[in-house]
Amino acid sequence: MLDLLWLLPSFPLMGFLILVLGGGRLPRQVAALVGAGSVGLSFVVAILVAVAFLNSGEEAIVQELWTWIAVGSFTPGFNLYLDGLSLVMMLVITGVGFLIHVYATGYMADDPGFARFFSYMNLFVAAMLMLVLGDNLVLLYLGWEGVGLCSYLLIGFWYTKPENGYAARKAFVVTRVGDTSMAIGLFLLFAHFGTLEIQELMQTADAEWAPGSTLPTIAALLLLGGAVGKSAQLPLQTWLPDAMAGPTPISALIHAATMVTAGVYLIARTHILFELAPSVQLLVAWIGLATLLLAGFTAMTQTDIKRILAYSTVSQIGYMFLGLGAGAWSASIFHLMTHAFFKALLFLGAGSVILAMHHEQNIFRMGALWNKTRISFASFLIGGLALTAFPFTSGFYSKDEILIGALELEGVGIWLWLGGVVGAFFTGLYTFRLIFIVFFGANRGHHCEGEYGGWNMALPLILLMGLSLAGGFISIPVETVFSHGEPHEEHHVSTLMHAIMIVVPLLGIGVSYLFYGARTLSVDRLMASTFAQGVYRFWQSGWGFDKLYDALFVKPFLWLSAINRADFVDSIYSGLAAAIQAGNKLMARTQTGLLSWYALTIVAGAVILITLGVML
Amino acid sequence: MDAIPIEHGLILAGILFCTGLVGVLTRRNIIFVLMSLEIMLNASGLAFIVAGARWGQAEGQIMFLMILTLAAAEVAVGLGLIIQMYRRYRTVDINVLSEMKG
């Protein structure tokens, strides 16, 4: 069964090829079958492989397919690597990805680009599987770039609107900044160890590099740059909210199963390197904390249902980074998995709401939907509870583990924990603000006829609801990946801390109920002062990062390109060409076509030659 | 009999040559151009003769015979071309043939 591993990325890739080559000629049913079916088959294979792997009791297996490139001593193989970490990732990607594909067959049913949509989606899943299964960093980088490409294609899927194209370009360029840093990191690692096999690399790095020395710090920093770009963390978080321009299933796929989790996976995969660079690891935690707070504040002020969810994703990935930075590797991966469940649920639920409201995305033009769109309401309720870490939902266990992991960190741990708890409060606040506004109160927008779509949209939602509720009880087999044979210590945290972690999100929900549910407290009164309005606008703009980058990078670049419109370097060559053309024109004027003129020039030439001959 | 000094012959040849040259350069009627060319050829022939007589060599006269043949052939071809030109353009103005203008 383990030999079937190579089929995993192959199915979606085949689906992609069929859909691309078949193009618009395939009937919709066939396109849907190929699109969703390929990922479904992948999921079946993933389960078979996972069962076989867990029964085999091996720590990791490598499937060697072929040598990919052979240049001197640089021979990265096209080899797949499976251990507990990639096992979890591949199950999440194919499982959640499959549900999203099924949902999309309903969501995109009326779209003219149906087959194109599924071809991109399949390529996306294939690239992401390549990323998590690659056993060397080059293969990982292939998947990494593939994911970036597909996100570009999908965010700009409705390409007739210029702003979608802009959002797609922004996502591509901003993540490219991180990718470049990661590529340099790979060069550095290769220059030192002559290999990019991840396991070999980690072992030699562990043996050769002293903890805290300069080289591992630089390498870890460069890899962190890549992770920060892909996972939309500070300071490269600006692309993710704009990525909402794509169709909603894409947002679900990008936010839940693929793309943004790549950065978390990369850091977890190379965690030995990060352990060799404690300062960078701590930086990871601080980046996570800063991002989760910043995104939490921003989410509270957004009015677009998808943007709220987008910022909540940024915030939740921040929690994962916090966990990674605190060394709670398995907790982070656990949160990655549960987050995939409930964020996919929330996004797909949002998709249903948006369709039921005739493509309205502003939450203030919705309302009182709870008894009209019951399935969406249930999705939001369960997803929201899991997101806010309500006791016994999946998010509760994973977030709990991350915060405890942070608390165990000596020194700054208590501050990281405190920040995380504050973030949890705001998570409750913004999530239930969304739910109260959209599903309760009065309807302030379009008339809503009820739930949109058939079983193919309802079933994924119901399954994801189950996973969001019960996902916390899944135990993931990643301990062997992260423990390096050391026995795992039991966490000892006082009941007080536990109580705080349970109560604080509930407080957030309570406050949002007072503001938006019962309306005992009024937002308008809060917003009366100019200071509050200023803060509101600041948060709503995402802490002014877009403006800052606009002023720092975009404007100077545009200015530079404006003054260099004529292209200075090019003008040297075009000047040369112009001089030659002028010379040619001059010479051409001597060709008058008049016989007497030719005779004269011959005579003049002869006279000159003879004169020269006589004089010299 | 006193030999004619070589300078006189050469000066005559030079004058003839320049006359022909000016004719070639300034005339627009192609028949006159051809005639001017003949004058130039004969001027150079005269120079050969004079030089041959000065040093008592036969090559000067041989060269003149060759120039004579060449001139005859040239006139034959040239006149044929002029007839063709006249048929096509109804003129013997040389400046009409300026299609090769750059």
Specify the helix fraction band of chain A: over 70%
Q: How would you state the average pLDDT of chain B, rounded?
A: 89
**Topology order of chain A in helix (H) and strand (E) letters:** HHEEHHHHHHHHHHHHHHHHHHHHHHHH
Portion of residues in beta strands of chain A equals: under 5%
Low-confidence stretches of chain A: none
Strand order of the largest sheet of chain A: 1-2
What's the SSE pattern of chain B? HHH
Task: Please identify the oligomeric state.
Answer: heterodimer
Number of strands of chain B: 0
Q: What would you call the shape of chain A?
A: globular
**What's the alpha carbon Rg of chain A, rounded to whole Å?**
29 Å
Briefly say what this structure is.
The complex is a heterodimer of chains A (616) and B (102). Helices cover 73% and strands 2% of the residues of chain A.
Can you characterise this structure?
In chain A, 73% of the residues lie in helices and 2% in strands. Chain A is mainly alpha-helical and 616 residues long. In chain A, helix 13 (278-301) crosses helix 23 (530-540). Chain B is mainly alpha-helical. Chain B has three helices and no strands. The longest helix of chain B is centred in the C-terminal third of the chain and has 31 residues, at 59-89.
